[in-house]
Amino acid sequence: MTRVTVEIKDHIAHITLTRGDKMNAVDMEMAEAIVAAGSELKDDRSVRAVVLSGEGRAFCAGLDVMNFAKFAASDPHDLVMPRTHGEANLFQEVALIWRKVPVPVIAALHGSVFGAGLQLALGADMRFAHPETQLAVMEMKWGLVPDMSGMVFLPQLVRSDVMRRMVYTAEKIGADKALAYGLVTELADNPFEAAMGMAQVIAGKSPSAIRAAKRLMTIAESGVTAAEILLEESREQTALIGNADQREQIAANLQKRAAKFE
User: How far is CA 20 from the centre of its chain?
Assistant: First the structure.
């Protein structure tokens, strides 16, 4: 069964979780397919933005509970400790890969966004959610802790007390509360259309400047010193000033037309 599809049109990659009959629950095959889709886009210079969505009734309802028995029969050390993807294991890479994709990633959320699904969504640059979306850090329900990069992204987005409440309780929250907490960027009656609209705006900007901005913000959020951030700002700007994309952006602005990038 196909777990993920990739469609690229007009410089926008649309990644769809296609296990709708299982509410896009993550099993081993889906984890591998998600990582493979992100890895495929890392070196595609034609892509300027990515939209991540799920088919059916939910974005992603979490880890496939049918895998729990399989996991329980495995050596937990062998399952989660090997660093198979740089600093991460396969499950952590499901979310991390989208920060490694060099262009903005926008997640379109609806239905259930639980556990693995929430952590996957947190790997995106932005999250547009339907007002009836339900979100949860669900791992405590199963006697576990978030272990799919949640502890990398949650502290960047929400206050410590909010994070602790969500992790300790595994309670579901509505999209309005998620927006107030900082987990969701914006609410939209049609989150996919909203995400695509944002992707189209981004795809119309200088591709080299957008990629530089994502690199720079990643550095800024990594906990390095102010001096290192300032130096990186200058490095990125030096490479952008006068390049072909910037010249075209300036010309398009002066001529009041849409920019046309190579």
Answer: 19
Tokens of 203: 């795809």
How far is 194 from 164, CA to CA, in rounded Å?
30
pLDDT digits (tens, 9 = 90+) for 124-180: 999 999 999 999 999 999 899 999 999 999 999 999 999 999 999 999 999 999 999
Q: What's the gap between Cα 203 and its chain centre?
A: 17
Measured between alpha carbons, how far is 164 from 158 in angstroms, rounded to an integer? 10
CATH of 4-203, one of 3.30.70.100, 3.90.226.10, 3.40.50.720, 1.20.1530.20: 3.90.226.10
Report the Cα–Cα distance between both ends of the chain, in Å, rounded.
Answer: 37
* C-alpha gyration radius of the chain: 19
CA pair distance 6, 46, nearest whole angstrom: 14
Q: For the structural domain made of 207-254, what CATH number should be given?
A: 1.10.12
